[in-house]
């Protein structure tokens, strides 16, 4: 991998990928995160008390969820248990425990986020479902997914970032490469009818090439990038084989115009 190109993508990814209508570029250093709750004081107080609950483990002791809501805990655990085998099929496995926290708000550079993964801290942050639903109603996904479907898929998306972070070559990829993998796994956890609705306007799957999957497409429309990533990933010749190329640094989706 060309070192100069890698340094270029590393210096610009966060700025470009923060402008999105989705899962906030996935991985982000803690120091860049701001919390400005859009909730009324009453709702914020209720959800805030829930966020201080102790984290309890899922069936997989590698994942714990910090919430006092047992039903929500079980729901998130169920989603992670669905996503982990998909990741393992691509050679991506958790080697360190990950904690999932529920938040009143997640904001980066004035962009509201559904969730994010704190790079190197092994912590996933998700919006409380009640808050998530409000933002979902204004998002690109509102016409294609129910709030519940969208929330569960974001769990899978952020879990993917957490697993990639633990991969030995993770530091060798541009953020846009991480997003390709995260969105592919996010779509893989959706049911077929939901995926069909999202990809209906793509047309012939063969027309989606690597040139259609770059940081500029992502910045203009995360949903468009996500659907194209899934269509590309789902072709037999791509899938985990292409994910492996990204992880090894054999190829990148970063479009370098310099």
Write a concise synopsis of the structure shown.
The protein has ten helices and seven strands. The chain has 258 residues and is of the alpha/beta class.
Protein architecture, described:
- The chain is an alpha/beta fold and 258 residues long.
- Helices cover 48% and strands 10% of the residues.
- It contains ten helices and seven strands.
- The chain has a five-stranded mixed β-sheet with strand order 1-2-3-7-6. Strands 4-5 form a two-stranded antiparallel sheet.
- The radius of gyration is 17 Å and the shape is globular.
- The model is unreliable at 1-7, 11-22 and 29-51 (pLDDT under 50).
Q: What are the salient characteristics of this protein?
A:
two-stranded antiparallel ribbon; 7 strands; globular; 10% strand; 10 helices; 48% helix; alpha/beta; five-stranded mixed beta sheet; 258 residues
Topology:
Layout (H helix, E strand, L loop, with lengths): L2 H15 L23 H11 L3 E3 L5 E4 L3 H20 L8 E6 L3 E2 L2 E2 L2 E4 L4 E5 L1 H8 L10 H19 L9 H14 L3 H8 L15 H6 L1 H13 L4 H10 L10
Parallel strand pairs: 2-3, 3-7
Antiparallel strand pairs: 1-2, 4-5, 6-7
Helix pairs in contact: 3-5, 4-5, 5-6, 6-9
Strands side by side in the biggest sheet: 1-2-3-7-6
Helicity, in percent? 40-55%
| Rg calculated over all Cα atoms | 17 Å
Distance between the termini: 16 Å
With helices defined by DSSP (H or I, 4 residues minimum), what is the helix count? 10
Oligomer: single chain
Class by SSE composition: alpha/beta
Tally of strands: 7
| Net shape | globular
Written as H for each helix and E for each strand, in order along the chain, the element string is HHEEHEEEEEHHHHHHH
Most strands sheet:
5 strands, mixed
């Amino acid at each position: 991998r060309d070192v100069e190109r890698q340094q270029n993508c590393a210096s610009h990814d966060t700025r470009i990928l923060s402008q999105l209508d989705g899962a906030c570029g996935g991985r982000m250093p803690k120091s860049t995160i701001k919390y400005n709750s859009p909730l009324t004081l009453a709702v914020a107080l209720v959800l805030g008390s829930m966020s201080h609950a102790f984290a309890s483990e899922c069936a997989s002791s590698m994942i714990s969820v910090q919430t006092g809501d047992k039903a929500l805990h079980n729901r998130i655990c169920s989603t992670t248990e669905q996503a982990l085998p998909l990741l393992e099929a691509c050679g991506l496995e958790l080697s360190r425990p990950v904690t999932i926290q529920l938040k009143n708000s997640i904001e980066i550079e004035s962009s509201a986020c559904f969730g994010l993964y704190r790079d190197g801290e092994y912590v996933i942050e998700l919006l409380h479902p009640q808050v998530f639903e409000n933002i979902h109603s204004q998002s690109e996904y509102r016409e294609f997914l129910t709030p519940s479907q969208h929330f569960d898929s974001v769990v899978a998306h952020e879990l993917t970032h957490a697993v990639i972070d633990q991969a030995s070559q993770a530091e060798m990829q541009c953020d846009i490469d991480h997003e390709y993998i995260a969105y592919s796994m996010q779509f893989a956890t959706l049911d077929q009818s939901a995926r069909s609705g999202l990809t209906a306007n793509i047309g012939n799957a063969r027309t989606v090439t690597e040139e259609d999957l770059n940081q500029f497409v992502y910045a203009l429309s995360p949903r468009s990038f996500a659907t194209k990533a899934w269509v590309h990933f789902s072709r037999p010749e791509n899938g985990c084989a292409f994910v492996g190329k990204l992880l090894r640094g054999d190829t990148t989706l970063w479009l370098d115009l310099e």
